[in-house]
């Protein structure tokens, strides 16, 4: 127990904001966690015949979010971006660890942060199983663990010539929200409200990833921009892609912007956390079926074609399927890079 006169210590803090919430989740849903928070390690027993998928994502103040960011949304996003990586591989969430550096103990901030964190943890049955807590500049690092039946992971390297290229949901709204918040673009309050959750509260496409296990030939989640991220699939699969710019799925709100903004934000705006995947054309019906069941639009944006030169390349086509000039294409293909920005 901590008293009012004594500042909240490291272990009181862990107990109050993280262990209590984690304990509340130890139900039948987390049967694969045999030991959670409290010892030197957590223990995991993966489902029989499955492999463990591991991924980490870090959020740093001033780099990934503003100092004044809403802590509840930050808690949600910190876990959601990790679950998005599990989804892109076809993994089912098992649990996660949280390493957090805090400049000082702000109980209101911690209360809201853990509320957001556990809301997403519950939604995806992914309990908190351990972590580390230290003083320092606000940094949130989560490692998520998932399970995938052996031989079923959806790799970036599996795209085949002739495959369709698909993307879930819509792309570009997180970038449009950022532009509005930076006053680069004026949006009505109503328009901003219709899209801002795409930046602050992304939805990891966990169920889509699981459904695509036997269908997609390759996949990744879009964090740095659709076309830039697609290039990772092309490089690892040794293929080119032909993309029809006009077919990128965009929200009604983004479609109110100029064509130049629409194309740029949809093609290279980051932070969408949709899934880009490839699949053989005979899977089209199955994929439309998944789209219906999940109530999530899935759109074909182009095709995988043979490599034309040594480097994997995206060939951008306009609505008449004519090549887009190289200068315009170069801006659209640029993705976000923390070190070359
Ligand atoms: P150690 O010193 O052995 O690394 P700690 O004293 O840092 O362990 O942590 C004690 C327990 O609390 C461990 O089980 C650890 O996983 C857990 N823990 C520490 N910080 C967090 C956190 N932010 N969220 C969840 N669990 C945490
Ligand atoms: Mg420690």
Please, could you describe this protein's structure?
- The chain contains eleven helices and twelve strands.
- It starts with 9 loop residues before the first helix and ends in an 8-residue tail after the last helix.
- It has two domains: 139 residues, PurM-like, N-terminal domain (60s Ribosomal Protein L30, Chain: A); 177 residues, Phosphoribosyl-aminoimidazole Synthetase, Chain A, domain 2.
- Helix content is 34%, strand content 23%.
- The model has no long low-confidence stretch (mean pLDDT 92).
- Strand 4, helix 3 and strand 5 form a beta-alpha-beta unit.
- The strands form three sheets. Strands 8-10-7-11-9-12 form a six-stranded mixed beta sheet, sandwiched between helices. A four-stranded mixed beta sheet has the order 3-6-4-5. Strands 1-2 form a two-stranded antiparallel sheet.
- With 341 residues, it is an alpha+beta fold.
- Helix 2 runs parallel beside helix 3.
- Bound molecules: adenosine-5'-diphosphate (ADP) and magnesium ion.
- The site of adenosine-5'-diphosphate has 13 residues, from helix 1, strand 4 and strand 5.
């Amino acid at each position: 127990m901590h008293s009012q006169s004594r500042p909240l210590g490291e272990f009181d803090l862990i107990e109050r904001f993280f262990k209590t919430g984690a304990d509340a989740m130890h139900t039948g849903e987390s049967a694969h966690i045999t030991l959670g928070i409290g010892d030197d390690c957590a223990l995991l027993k993966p489902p029989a015949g499955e492999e463990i998928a591991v991924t980490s994502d870090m959020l740093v103040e001033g780099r990934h979010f503003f100092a004044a960011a809403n802590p509840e949304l930050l808690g949600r996003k910190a876990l959601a971006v990790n679950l998005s990586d599990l989804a892109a591989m076809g993994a089912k969430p098992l649990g996660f660890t949280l390493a957090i550096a805090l400049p000082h103990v702000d109980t209101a901030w911690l209360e809201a942060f853990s509320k957001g964190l556990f809301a997403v943890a519950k939604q995806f049955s992914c309990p908190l199983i351990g972590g580390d807590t230290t003083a320092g500049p606000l940094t949130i690092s989560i490692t998520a663990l998932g399970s995938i039946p052996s031989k079923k992971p959806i790799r970036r390297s599996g795209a085949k010539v002739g495959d369709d290229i698909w993307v879930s949901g819509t792309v570009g709204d997180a970038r449009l929200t950022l532009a509005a918040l930076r006053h680069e673009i004026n949006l009505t309050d109503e328009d901003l409200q219709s899209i801002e959750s795409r930046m602050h509260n992304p939805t990891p496409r966990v169920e889509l990833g699981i459904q695509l296990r036997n269908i997609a030939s390759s996949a990744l989640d879009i964090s740095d921009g659709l076309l830039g991220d697609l290039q990772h699939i092309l490089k690892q699969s040794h293929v080119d892609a032909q993309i029809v710019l006009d077919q990128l799925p965009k929200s009604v709100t983004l479609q109110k912007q100029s064509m130049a903004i629409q194309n740029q934000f949809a093609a290279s705006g980051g932070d969408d956390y949709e899934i880009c995947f490839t699949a053989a054309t005979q899977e089209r019906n199955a994929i439309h079926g998944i789209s219906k069941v999940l109530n999530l639009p899935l759109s074909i944006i182009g095709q995988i074609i043979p490599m034309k030169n040594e480097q994997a390349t995206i060939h951008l086509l306009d609505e008449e399927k004519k090549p887009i000039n190289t200068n315009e294409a170069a801006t659209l293909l640029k993705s976000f890079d923390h070190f070359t920005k």
